[in-house]
Design goal:
This protein has about 230 residues and is α+β, with helices and mostly antiparallel strands. The chain has a domain of about 100 residues: Aspartate Aminotransferase, domain 1, CATH 3.90.1150. It is built from four helices and six strands; from the N terminus they run H-H-E-E-E-E-H-E-E-H. It has a six-stranded antiparallel β-sheet, covered by helices on one side. Helix 2 runs parallel beside helix 4. It is globular, with a radius of gyration of 37 Å.
């Protein structure tokens, strides 16, 4: 009798062990499953997260105008300056303020990669802001054939190669006048004659425009406060 009971207990234990093992197999990973064959994780929305096959969903950049113009200019005080209106293009009866003109040149030539040289496209005595040939220009199509993006005349006025939108604004606010040749084929539409700065306030505006033109051509992010 006791022998029969003992055999029954052993059989019961064997059956319980088999059931437990089967339950563990059904709850765990299938035999032979690996990290590569495991189902892909899903996002909160239930979409399979398979980066290797997912399309690039990054939105395309928004359209931007060809040129970005800074803050709007206020109107230059006083009457519009008189110019030749033709080529050679110059300001008539301009009288440079010695201290202002010296500061204009000192700070303008602090721009990185800009050196001093006689202008290759202006009248004798004009000094170009010469770009170092080693600079990789963002807009080489903007600058003059001589490689300059600006030159300062002896009277303190200057020609500057800038965005056409900005050049039009400069003329509208009486800070200068667009070059007579801007409508000619092969001549940059943003060349402008900036009038001679006569006060420290006017000097800051002119220097700001120079920095803006430099950034356009070089693709830099120089700020006016860097020229001290």
């Amino acid at each position: 009798m006791s022998k029969t009971i003992g055999l029954a207990c052993i059989a019961a234990l064997l059956l319980l062990s088999a059931c437990s093992g089967s339950a563990q197999t059904s709850q765990g990973a299938a035999p032979g499953a690996t990290a590569e064959s495991a189902p892909a994780a899903t996002s909160d929305a239930g979409i399979a997260a398979t980066p290797s096959t997912m399309p690039d969903t990054e939105p395309a950049p928004q359209d931007r105008s060809e040129f970005e113009v800074g803050l709007a200019l206020s109107q230059r005080p006083g009457d519009r300056e008189e110019t030749s209106g033709s080529v050679p293009h110059f300001q008539i009866d301009a009288e440079p303020v010695e201290t202002i003109n010296a500061e204009l040149q000192r700070r303008a030539f602090l721009l990185p990669g800009v050196g001093r040289a006689p202008s290759g496209v202006s009248l004798p005595g004009a000094i170009q802001l010469a770009l170092d040939p080693s600079l990789e220009l963002a807009r080489p199509d903007v600058i003059a054939s001589s490689g300059e993006f600006a030159h300062i005349h002896p009277d303190g006025s200057m020609h500057l190669w800038m965005s056409p939108d900005r050049a039009a604004e400069v003329e509208a606010q009486q800070w200068g006048e667009v070059h007579p040749w801007v409508d000619r084929d092969g001549f940059w539409d943003g060349v402008v004659l900036l009038f001679t700065p006569e006060t420290p306030e006017q000097l800051e505006v002119v220097l700001g425009l120079i920095v803006e033109a430099y950034n356009l051509v070089v693709g830099a992010e120089v700020a006016l406060v860097d020229l001290v």
